[in-house]
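Next comes the chain:
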Amino acid sequence: MKIGNTKFEAGTITFALQYRALMPDQGVSLQVVGDVAGTETELLRFDCFDQRPHYHYAPDGKNERHDMDKTTAGNPVGWMLKQLRAKLPEMLKQAGFEEVANRLDCATVLAKLDQVEEAARYMALKQRRTVTHNRGDPVIEAGNIRFGLEFRELTGDRGMAIHVMSDVAGQEIELLAFDCFENGPHYHYGPRNQDVRLYWDKTLVPDPLCWTLEQFKTGKLPDMIARAGYPTIAAAMDKELVASKLEKEIEPKAMAIRAAHAR
């Protein structure tokens, strides 16, 4: 992986930061970089992602990978910094870079980590990838949630979209988005929050709109809203009302809009 552009020299090693927005994950990556036989080498890497945070020993070599357990570790950035302050020499040795570990200037490293922490936490807060969609027209109310329907025409893609929305602290927020496109169909958990973006396998799901409606009709919507980060909204859903709206309004209108744009 390329070395991050935000760098902090700390004697014989360098801390390099970058924000990585992948599919479906995102978060701050920190690389510990050093000179090995005259070559700039990635010694350790911490990928402090939202969904699957993990770290690597010798990513360019043996690439020993371990997951962070968010339940016990808490915030991945905070956990990473704790390990760097307490266990960096041991981790470098485990990665196979004992010579680098023995040449560490620990006082310099600790002082530099204060700057690293400030930059990493700023990135985690300010560089997050989110997306804001139109709310759709029509918008169908269903208790504490609402469904926005629209046919989206983009450069290189098109298709039916369903937006699941609710009010959070007095502001309408999109909880889920289903972009049932012709070429790159996908859906979002928490577009304005974590924006976990998953792409359908068109071989297994040839009609993403029908798949989406089936999830709603089989009761998956509360779990999906909870996964998006809104458990209280999920718990307050009126499931019978949603089921009625699906049958009488949402499904027939979504199908009619798609049919009107068929080509």
In short: The chain has eight helices and twelve strands.
